[in-house]
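Re: weekly structure request thread

Next one in the queue (601 aa):
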Amino acid sequence: MRHFFSYLIPFSILFWTAIASDYYEQLILKPLPQSTLLASFNFRSNASLSQFEAHNFRYFPRSLGQVIQHVGTKELHLRFSLGRWDAESWGARPWDGTKEGGTGVELWAWLEAETDEEADRKWLSLTNALSGLFCASLNFIDETRTTRPVMSFQPEGDHPNSTLANMQLLHGVLPREVVCTENLTPFLKLLPCKGKAGISTLLDGHKLFDASWQSMAIDIRPICPDGEECVLQIEQTIDMVLDIERSKRPRENPIPRPPPGHDMKCNSSKPYHSDDTCFPTDFAEGQEWALDQVFGKSVKGTCPLTDPDVPPLCIQVPNIRDIYTTAGATELKNPNGFSRCYKIPSDADFSMMLPRMSQEGEDPATNTRELVQPETPLLYAERSFTGHGYERGGVRTILTNPSPDTEVEFVYMESLPWFMRIYLHTLTTHINGEAVPKNNIIEEIYYRPALDRVRGTQLELRMRIPPASTVFLTYDFEKSILRYTEYPPDANRGFDVAAAIITILPSTSPDAPLARQKASSLRTTTLLLSLPTPDFSMPYNVIIFTSTVIALAFGGMYNILIRRFVGADEGPENVAGLKGKIIAAVSNLVGKLKGAKGKVD
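Done, posted below.
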């Protein structure tokens, strides 16, 4: 199994040079089936711990560094994700899923604190600071959305034993958060070149958030190479899967329209193919695109601060495919025959074009010759709700091990809201449709029950799936009734339930493949939970009805108490005289009108 990271740099020495350098950036392009393109942007900056503690910020962003120093954060991981990764079509996730988060915003960090109360205070300060820095609703990660994972996460950096003793892990997620352009702008401002030069010039909100799947990741951790000074490393990653046909639409006319007849791609092998009959070809048959077409712009040179030994752009296609680039670029082919990198001019725009391979002739193109076949994931996972009604329900998770000869060991974690009261005794497991004892699949369980309006439910399972098997994991839960002030404005839409986190543990076998020798992770999709929803118009109707009754009762009572009622003959004389004068004037006027009418006759 080929590992994703093996395609990044054609020569291994370049990788170690990039680790030791203060800053480098690289873009990896990988065409995928169904006319899609995976684009992975990676930016990495290093700052020595002595310079960081002395507030000497060079490549490390000052705004984020001050927050970390103030809160006492030893390691931080932040994710902004949107969309769904199609593992069946696109294969394994990039970076083994370590740069991926659940839908919405996900944050976990190791804080230096001696007590839980101190950790909670620092966590609150951290979420509020990051909320303002990234224009996100991270300040809504309160105690009901915060968990303390036990088995799912491990520190990625190098921490001394004295520091590990006082480090506490806290995790929070906002599945309802909508990731948009206002989150991308602060992300770009953390880069040394601020998106003005280098591969970051391709990042545009219109293209990024029109992707079928996208993820933005920020990882901060200490790295201590052997025999060298420890450095604090910040790694920023953006991964997106672009639909090539949709991305090639011009920005000034993005509305999809049927193509003209002469531009349609037809399958000429059909017996009914003619000038007026067309059967569209499959999306998988041939890809033709250019960098400036897909991203809407070219790469504006290179960032002057980046490591010149690391090629800024790589593409994973077989070496038999032709690629055309602008003048001045240097091509470096990987000996494995499935990737190549380009060193581009520092002061000129760069673009590249991948032409379509011929589908006819003596040597027609095939998927193997045209694309690097996606890797098979170590595990497939999907999750859904079961049951009906507004009182109870269930959750079913389907986990599939595609390997024919290797079992998979992983940790399955769910962070559920407090209004989902699960029944742990209903937890059952099935293998290929047959019920089996839980102990055959689940090796360890960590369960922290929810407290109403205080904390959510935390469930962690350490599981092992045999080769070529499918495990069904199910349990039941009860839905709570909320106060009417706890419902969101769109209450009838439902409540978002955070994605389940699956951490695949590294294999202990010495003969295991490279991909199995390190930890990887994946997330399921989020769920939409329907709760009993009251009629929010009833309080309004009650208020109107009550106000009307009070107004009528108060008005009548007020008139009775304040007004003075007297008879007509008991009123003042001037009133009676005035009334008599008016009646006399009216009578005289009527008489004159009748007299005038008689003279005319």
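The mean pLDDT is 87. The longest strand covers residues 36-48.
Next request, please.
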